[in-house]
Design brief:
Layout (H helix, E strand, L loop, with lengths): L17 H17 L3 H12 L4 H9 L4 H40 L18 H14 L4 E2 L5 E3 H4 L19 E3 L9 E3 L5 H9 L4 E10 L11 E11 L4 H16 L5 E8 L2 E10 L23 E10 L1 H6 L8 E8 H9 L5 H4 L3 H4 L7
Parallel strand pairs: 1-5
Antiparallel strand pairs: 2-4, 3-4, 5-6, 6-10, 7-8, 8-9, 9-10
The protein binds 3,4-dihydroxyphenylalanine.
C-alpha cells in the first residue's frame, strides 16, 4: 500500500486509474463467462474477487488517498466491484441450473427396468396351521410338548399297550432304525405317531398334565396324492382327577369351533386303539354344507363328499395300562387323548387335492396362503 500523499492526484496511483479498474472488471467478467462449471467459477471468484485479487488490492489503496480523492476512486472501484458481483451471481445461477439439469438426466432411474430382487417366500401352511392349533390349546392352559422323531420302540409301542406282535409294528408300516437284540431292551424306530409324547410328557411331569404335542411322524408309505411317508400329527393329552369322555368331547368341539366356525358339532364313533379305552373316532360336522348336502344331490359337497361329517382323528380315555407304564395312579387319575393328522386337515380346510404339493417346496403352493404368522 502506498504512503499517504497529501498532494494526491488519483491518476498517479496506477491501480486506481480508470482504465486499470475497467481492465480488472473486464477480466473478471471474461473469467466468469469462461468458467465452464461451478468449480471453475469458484476459482475465478477467488482470483477476481478474493482478498488478493487486483480489485481488492485496488480497494485497499483507497484508504491511503487524501480525503478529496477518496470519493471518486471509491465510486469507481465500488461500481466495478458491483458489476463483478452481479456477473458472478448471474453466472452462478446459470451454472447451477445447468448442473441440476444434467444431474436429472444422469441420475434418472428407469423404473421400467427388470429388477433382480428375490421375491419374499411364505411360511408353509402346515406350519401355520400347527401353530393355530397350538394357540387354541395354549389359550386353554395347555403346554406345548415335543419328543424325538427317532424314538425308542418302547415309547412308540410297548408303553402304549401295543402287543409285541401288533401288526402296526410290522416292517411294512414302521421304519426301523435299530432292531431289538440281546443287548438292547428296546429297538429304535422313526416314530409312527405322536402318541409316544404322551408317555414322555407323563414321565416328565406330575399330574395334572395338559399338553399339546405337534410333530413329524413316519410310515413306510409311498408318496402319492393321498399318502406321504413323512407327515404331521398333533396329539392332545389331559390327565387330571375326574376327567371323562364329556371333557374330551367338549375340548375338541372347542377346537373345531375355533378353527372352523361357531356352532359346529362333533360326534364319536366307537373304534379301537390299544392306548385308549374306550376309544373312538371323532368326526366334525362339515363346516361347508353343515349337513345340507346329505341326500341332496343339488347341494353336493366336495369337502365332506356329501356325508355331512368330516373324520378328524382318533381319541379316547387313556388306557389305565398306559397310566401305569407312565407311573401314574389310575385309581386317582384319569385322562383323555386325541390325535389327528395335519396334512389331512389342511386338505379339507383349504381344498388341497394332492398331498405331493405339500412336500415339493414350490413357492407357488405356499404363497397363496400369504404371510400369516
Ligand atoms: N396315534 C394314533 C394314530 O396315529 C391316533 C390316535 C388315536 C391318537 C387315539 C390318540 C388317540 O391320542 O387317543 O393313528
Amino acid at each position: 500500500m502506498s504512503a499517504p500523499n497529501k498532494s494526491y492526484d488519483p491518476v498517479e496511483v496506477e491501480a486506481l486509474k480508470p482504465q486499470e479498474i475497467e481492465r480488472m472488471r473486464d477480466e473478471a467478467l471474461a473469467a466468469f463467462a469462461a468458467a465452464a462449471d461451478l468449480e471453475a467459477l469458484r476459482e475465478a471468484k477467488a482470483a477476481h474477487m478474493g482478498d488478493r485479487s487486483p480489485l481488492a488490492l485496488a480497494n485497499r489503496e483507497i484508504g491511503a488517498l487524501p480525503p478529496q480523492a477518496k470519493a471518486e476512486a471509491g465510486k469507481r472501484v465500488g461500481m466495478a466491484r458491483g458489476a463483478v458481483n452481479k456477473a458472478l451471481a448471474a453466472r452462478q445461477t446459470e451454472l447451477e441450473a445447468e448442473r441440476d439439469a444434467r444431474v436429472l438426466v444422469e441420475e434418472a432411474v428407469d423404473v421400467t427396468l427388470p429388477h433382480d430382487r428375490v421375491p419374499a417366500g411364505a411360511r408353509h401352511p402346515l406350519t401355520t396351521l400347527c401353530e393355530r392349533i397350538e394357540d387354541v390349546f395354549v389359550a386353554m392352559g395347555y403346554e406345548v410338548a415335543e419328543g424325538p422323531e427317532v424314538e425308542a420302540e418302547w415309547f412308540n409301542f410297548d408303553a402304549l399297550n401295543f402287543e409285541p406282535d401288533h401288526p402296526a409294528r410290522a416292517m411294512q408300516d414302521t421304519f426301523f432304525v435299530e432292531g431289538k437284540d440281546k443287548k438292547q431292551e428296546s429297538g429304535v424306530v422313526l416314530r409312527t405317531h405322536t402318541s409316544p409324547v404322551q408317555v414322555r410328557s407323563m414321565l416328565d411331569r406330575e399330574p395334572p398334565v395338559y399338553v399339546v404335542c405337534p410333530g413329524r411322524v413316519y410310515r413306510t408309505d409311498e408318496l402319492d396324492a393321498t399318502h406321504t411317508p413323512v407327515f404331521h400329527q398333533v396329539e392332545l393329552l389331559a390327565i387330571d382327577e375326574g376327567l371323562t369322555m364329556a371333557d374330551l368331547k367338549g375340548t375338541i368341539e372347542h377346537m373345531v369351533r375355533s378353527l372352523f366356525g361357531e356352532g359346529l358339532t362333533t360326534r364319536l364313533r366307537p373304534n379301537y386303539f390299544p392306548f385308549t379305552e374306550p376309544s373312538a373316532e371323532l368326526d366334525m360336522e362339515c363346516y361347508v354344507c353343515r349337513g345340507e348336502s346329505v341326500g341332496n344331490p343339488e347341494k353336493a359337497c366336495r369337502t365332506c363328499s356329501s356325508e355331512g361329517w368330516i373324520e378328524l382323528g382318533g381319541c379316547g380315555m387313556v388306557n389305565p395300562r398306559v397310566l401305569v407304564a407312565a407311573g401314574i395312579d389310575p385309581e386317582k387319575y384319569s385322562g383323555f387323548a386325541f390325535g389327528f393328522g395335519i396334512e389331512r386337515m389342511l386338505m379339507f380346510r383349504h381344498n388341497v387335492e394332492d398331498m405331493r404339493d405339500m412336500v415339493e417346496g414350490d413357492v407357488r403352493f405356499t404363497r397363496p396362503f400369504g404371510m400369516e404368522i
